[in-house]
Every structure is written in C-alpha cells, then in structure tokens.
Specification:
Helices cover 35% and strands 4% of the residues. It is mainly alpha-helical. Strands 1-2 form a two-stranded parallel ribbon. Helix 3 runs parallel beside helix 4.
C-alpha cells in the first residue's frame, strides 16, 4: 500500500484509505465524490463479479501505475510482484514528495 500511496502523492492525487468487506455497488455508491477506486486485496476476495454494476471504475495497483506513469509496454502483468518490480524501476530519484 505504501507504494500506491507514493505513486498517488507523486502525481498530486488526493486519496483515501478505506477498509470494507465484500465489495458491492451499494457500498461504493456512498462515496459519490470519489472518481475511482484502487482495489488492494488478496486474490481470492477481490473478485468484482460484474463491473458494469458499479458507478465508478475499480482498478488494480498495476493499472494505476500504467495510468499515472505512462509505463505500459504492451505486456500485461498479473502478479503483484511485477508491479513492485516495475514500480521500483520507475521511481525518479529527483522527484521530491511532500
């Protein structure tokens, strides 16, 4: 989660950390001011059965990294370890975070 927070701060994105049980459209609809959700969960409890039922996009940390850092190479990564490796490689040493 620290790497996701770092990525969001590096791109001046406001974020909130929430803990919820099983995701449902009704639960997430309570947060109308949030533009999208980044789901950080174990692989067994993170299944979103029908994403079209949700009012806002739900993305993974890997998709967030692609969107904010423009590092998509065409290779689809499915393992979180790949995200961590590519994230570490993409951090700019000159970028200061508040």
């Amino acid at each position: 989660m620290d790497k996701v927070k770092y990525l969001l701060r590096a791109h001046s994105k406001e974020y909130y950390v929430m803990t919820v049980g099983k995701l449902t459209p009704a639960k997430l609809a309570n947060y109308a001011d949030i533009d999208m959700f980044v789901l950080i969960s174990c692989e067994f409890s993170c299944m979103v059965e029908d994403p079209t039922e949700y009012y806002k996009p739900i993305i993974t940390p890997i998709e967030l990294n692609y969107a904010l850092s423009n590092t998509f190479t065409g290779r689809i990564e499915l393992e979180f370890q790949d995200f961590e490796t590519n994230f570490d490689a993409g951090i700019s040493e000159n970028r200061e975070i508040e």
